[in-house]
Amino acid sequence: MPLRTLSLNLDRNLLQTALPLLRSGSVDALEWSFDALNRLPDLPGWFGDLLGTYAKAGRLVGHGIFYSVCNADWSEEQQQWLNRLRDWQTCFPLDHVTEHFGFMTGRDFHRGAPISPPLSEATLLVGQDRLLRLQDACCRPVGLENLALAYRADDVRRQGAFLERLLEPVNGFLLLDAHNLYCQSHNFGIDPIELCRAYPLHRVREIHLSGGSWVAHPEAPRGKVRRDTHDNRVPEEVFRIADHLLNNCPNLKYTTLEQLSPALATERQRGGYAEDFRRMNELIAAVHDSPSGLPCGFEPPGLTIPSTPYVNEPLARQQTLLNGILETATSSTDLKDRLSNSELADSDWHTEDWEEHMLETVRLIAQKWA
Amino acid sequence: MKLSPELLRSVALGIGLGISTVSCSILKTDNKPVAHDDECTKEACAKNCEKAKQEANNWYDCPACGMG
Fold first, then answer.
1. Which domain holds residue A90?
2. Cα nearest neighbour of B15 on chain A
3. Which range, A49-63, A109-123, A227-241, A256-270, is most confident?
4. Confidence of residue A42 (pLDDT cuts 50, 70, 90)
5. Do residue B68 and residue A179 have CB atoms under 8 angstroms apart?
6. Under a CB-based contact definition with an 8 Å cutoff, are residues A215 and A357 in contact?
7. Would A73 be classed as within a structural domain?
8. How many distinct structural domains can be found in chain A?
9. What is the CB neighbour count within 10 angstroms for residue B21?
10. Residue B44: which of A216, A262, A368 has the nearest Cβ?
11. Which residue, A106, A232, A299, A365, has fewest beta-carbon neighbours within 10 Å?
12. What does the pLDDT average to over A105-112?
């Protein structure tokens, strides 16, 4: 039966919300974003004890944010990130480590958001190299989370198969985020269960459940874009997707509830979170164990990493160019014009096919953190 | 997973003694929570709630805390 897991960080609202659930004994595992603390020199002892308790039981997993798996250049910050992961792994052994599929926008290492790279051979080589280094740093199974943001329906349909190609050399796994699937399902008019089937479900080791929000856009389906903002209750549709995944992912080990801390400030909000956790647990309890026995562990194959990180200069140049355009475009029309007159036109990025409502969405995301 | 009473007490005490509202130093901490339904959009909320008035660079787009 999958483990009932909470996404938990050093945060008052989140911890206050989680405390009654921790007291009840119903939290089997914790997921921790270890790199969100890169400006905090020391953990409080009590928080370290909490992490340590779960780590000792083999029930602590790491969920990174800032590694930027598909960044085609290699930065000193990425090497430092790996070095810090080695340190964290010594203090709080993580059962596995996940990161987001994509590369980061923004000026410096801590600012920006993950956006989708082209699903190309160049991206594949970059991503495989970064995953190898990630695995070398933590010496545990490594996985990638599917991205909510996409530019066109073809990319949405291809993301699952592409992620499998990325993960295969390192025997990696998928962290399948049910709300991200819901976002793509709505934003591109694709049935969510059909979307699930486009993913290699045998590679899923963890799933996420969370909520989000709507942003109005006249070109979007039903006049609104679904955003993965983690600031609301888990929608019914996401529970439906999660139920499908729970019963079709034979190697699933962790089922994780996520919510953003500032959206847990009131008793009403915390009550909603507890109810979502209870509902998630009901779905887990109803899962029929896989007849094939113990799930696959996705253990590292023990590969030797090249001494020099792989760099793809043309792709790196294109990523920098795209970031610059996204961060300075004054409107989606301006964005479209500048993309069509840039090196990105008629390339693996397929910018000419980007949906109008997603052009505006990615522009707004990039500019928030420019 | 059962946690020891001592650990749970130390966690409760640690929360009570005051940690930052959010773990990320780049986030604002003065955003008021808003009750609104799932159909609410920032641009056209029928209830004219606070979410429709929130400024850019709000916490709920911070990759440190919500961009899965």
1. 3-310
2. A12
3. A49-63
4. low
5. yes
6. no
7. yes
8. 1
9. 18
10. A216
11. A299
12. 61
Position A153 in a domain: yes
| Measured distance CA(A95)–CA(A313) in Å, rounded | 34
Non-local (6+) Cβ contacts of A258 within 8 A are: A7, A31, A208, A209, A210, A230, B66, B68
What ipTM was predicted for this assembly?
0.87
Q: What does the block give as tokens for A170? A: 């390192």
Helix axes B5-17, A45-56, angle to 10 degrees: 140
Q: Whose CA is closest to A284, among A15, A28, A8, A25?
A: A28
User: Which residues of chain B make contact with A108, given a CB cutoff of 8 A?
Assistant: none
Q: pTM here?
A: 0.88
- Residue B65: the pLDDT is 37
A335 occurs within a structural domain: no
- Name the average pLDDT for chain A: 92
Tens digits of residue pLDDT in A126-164? 999 999 999 999 999 999 999 999 999 999 999 999 999
Q: Which residues of A are less than 8 Å from B65 in CB distance?
A: 9, 36, 230, 260-261
Give me the residues of A, 9-28, that contact B with CB < 8 A: 9-13, 15-16, 19, 22-23, 25, 27-28
CATH code, domain carrying A7 = 3.20.20.150
Within-domain flag for A17: yes
Q: Does B45 touch chain A (CB under 8 A)?
A: no
B30 touches A at CB < 8 Å = no
| Torsion over CA: A100, A102, A108, A109 (sign) | positive
The minimal CB distance from B41 to the residues A216, A235, A367 is found for A216
Does the structure show a pLDDT above 80 at A370?
no
Look at the block and give the residue holding tokens 């693996």: A348
Residue B59 has its nearest CB partner, among A216, A262, A266, at A262
